[in-house]
């Protein structure tokens, strides 16, 4: 599927401004849509929207189908008479520019439980209650397992599901499952209620964005977290041992981001079983995401052609091997059920001719990251090599900011000698015919000038922020995903300059 010539910004909703310690679906989300519209942009790209688990990573969610409760707007719940002004007094530990996840999680859960108590006490409208019951019935295929999964994690002190003390829950024995559904009925209903709030608010925001001409781009990681409702509810689709542990783990070999590779720890799929069931699980997953967004990026697309398999117990991803994936057969099954697929393939890293052939055969645009183009032997990331069916980025959520990259201040560059770094900087200046004084906006302009159908920039690059404001450092667990845009930064962002360039380079839709 090809896309019209356009541009957009990468900003996860948790990075929005707001008063509750984290960006959410409150007024700031609507103001960001307004900013995109004013700037002549038509795509809002975000990271996976599920409830985060390990290390707060959106790429390690508790479910591929559920929404993140931290994104629920508490302000909106005042309108439904579920919360009062006194329930929204901000915690003194909140930071304007960073998410303190533990504090935010505690604060929001307390408020959401108050809202649920008010809901059960009948303080909202009859129509609101009917909508909840309808939502629960319509989404029961994934919702009931997810709500039970979260309720069980709470009961067992947050332990991962293979470590739960009740064997019948790990094997999903019918009698045991029924027992806990009864015992935890109130908790299950609460988690269903929170999901109802999320999806109600999300659909309202999506309509507002679409009415403004803004498309939402979601993100589907190829793998799901081991400790997730996905794996617990459908263990037959994953390579697990007899106790529910990951028999083989996912990752990538050593690359630009990490000299020891990236060991993600996610379980590998049982592709034989998935194929036997006509890839129904994948069809449902992509369909669920496409009900939330207008287009989606598939993270680690190359894993569908061949994936890096690491034996259980390894501490790094070095000792893995490539295994053939399902290839075009999977996408044929999904397309048969869903029709045309508005998919962008993340094809970064070690890419083989076979991966290129798969992507091109499916008609999916690939990704071009300008920062990579100035490395020796990576000229295919520079615009003079592009085809139209591509998405060009100044940087992604895994990269340093463009300013940080050019100044080479981050830990990513510790294994690069200064000569290599200066060669990259020199090539960048010569390619741009500029002195590097405004390198971030020079690269933004370069991306917009290119023939690539879509140009995307992280919000940090629009603001020309340095290394300390990046979103994620691959291979580093603590302190990631926490950056937030302030209201003052959004107000001062150069929407006029972006609109002028989008006009000049024919990207206003």
Structure description:
It is a single chain. By secondary structure, the chain is of the alpha/beta class. The protein has a single domain, classed as TIM Barrel (Alpha-Beta Barrel), CATH 3.20.20.80. Helix content is 41%, strand content 11%. The strands form 2 sheets. An 8-stranded parallel sheet has the order 9-6-3-2-1-12-11-10. It has a 4-stranded antiparallel sheet with strand order 5-4-7-8, with no helix packed on it. The protein is globular, with a radius of gyration of 23 Å. The model has no long low-confidence stretch (mean pLDDT 95).
In short:
The chain has a single domain (6-504), classed as TIM Barrel. Helix content is 41%, strand content 11%.
**CATH architecture classification:** Alpha-Beta Barrel
Mean pLDDT: 95
The dominant shape is: globular
List unreliable stretches of 5+ residues.
Answer: none
Q: How much of the residues is beta strand, in percent?
A: 5-15%
At the first level of CATH, the class is Alpha Beta
Q: Structural class of the secondary elements?
A: alpha/beta
- What name does the CATH topology carry? TIM Barrel
Radius of gyration: 23 Å
Trace the largest sheet across and list its strands: 9-6-3-2-1-12-11-10
CATH superfamily: Glycosidases
- Tally the structural domains: 1
Distance between the termini: 18 Å
- The portion of residues assigned to helices is 40-55%
Describe the sheet with the most strands.
8 strands, parallel
Number of helices: 20
- Count of individual beta strands: 12
């Amino acid at each position: 599927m090809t896309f019209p010539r356009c541009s957009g910004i990468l900003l996860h909703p948790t990075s929005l401004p707001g008063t509750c310690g984290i960006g959410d679906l409150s007024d700031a989300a609507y103001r960001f849509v307004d900013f995109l519209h004013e700037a002549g942009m038509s795509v809002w790209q975000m990271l996976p929207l599920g409830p985060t688990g390990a290390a707060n990573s959106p790429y390690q969610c508790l479910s591929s189908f559920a929404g993140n409760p931290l994104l629920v707007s508490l302000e909106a719940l005042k309108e439904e008479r579920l919360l009062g002004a006194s329930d929204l007094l901000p915690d003194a530990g909140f930071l304007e520019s960073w998410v303190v996840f533990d504090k935010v999680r505690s604060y929001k859960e307390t408020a959401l439980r108050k809202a649920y108590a008010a809901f059960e006490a009948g303080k909202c409208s009859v129509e609101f209650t009917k909508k909840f019951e309808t939502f629960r019935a319509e989404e029961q295929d994934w919702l009931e397992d997810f709500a039970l999964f979260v309720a069980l994690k709470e009961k067992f002190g947050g332990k991962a599901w293979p470590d739960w003390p009740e064997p019948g829950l790990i094997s999903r024995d019918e009698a045991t499952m029924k027992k806990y559904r009864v015992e935890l009925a109130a908790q299950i209903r609460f988690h269903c209620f929170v999901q109802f709030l999320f999806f109600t608010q999300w659909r309202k925001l999506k309509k507002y964005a679409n009415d403004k001409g803004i498309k939402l781009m979601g993100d589907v990681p190829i793998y799901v977290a081991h400790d997730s409702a996905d794996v617990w509810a459908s263990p037959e689709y994953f390579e697990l041992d007899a106790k529910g542990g990951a028999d083989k783990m996912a990752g990538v070999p050593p690359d630009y981001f990490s000299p020891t590779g990236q060991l993600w720890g996610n379980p590998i799929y049982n592709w034989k079983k998935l194929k036997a069931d006509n890839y129904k699980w994948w069809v449902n997953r992509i369909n669920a995401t496409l009900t939330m967004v207008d287009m989606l990026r598939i993270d680690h697309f190359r894993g569908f052609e061949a994936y890096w398999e690491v034996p259980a117990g390894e501490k790094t991803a070095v000792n893995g091997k490539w295994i053939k994936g399902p290839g075009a057969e999977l996408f044929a099954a999904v397309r048969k059920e869903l029709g045309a697929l508005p998919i962008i393939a993340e094809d970064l890293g070690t890419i083989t001719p076979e991966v290129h052939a798969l992507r091109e055969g499916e008609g999916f645009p690939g990704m071009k990251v300008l920062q990579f183009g100035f490395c020796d032997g990576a000229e295919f990331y520079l615009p003079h090599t592009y085809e139209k069916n591509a998405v060009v980025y100044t940087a992604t959520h895994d990269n340093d900011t463009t300013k940080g990259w050019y100044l080479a201040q981050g830990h990513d560059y510790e294994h690069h000698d200064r000569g290599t770094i200066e060669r990259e900087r020199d090539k960048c200046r010569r390619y741009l015919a500029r002195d590097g004084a405004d390198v971030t906006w020079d690269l933004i302009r370069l991306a917009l000038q290119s023939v690539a159908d879509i140009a995307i920039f992280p919000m940090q690059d629009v603001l020309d922020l340095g290394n300390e404001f990046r979103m994620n450092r691959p291979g580093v667990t603590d302190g990631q995903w926490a950056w937030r845009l302030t209201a003052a930064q959004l107000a001062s962002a150069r929407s006029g300059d972006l609109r002028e360039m989008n006009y000049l380079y024919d990207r206003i839709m």
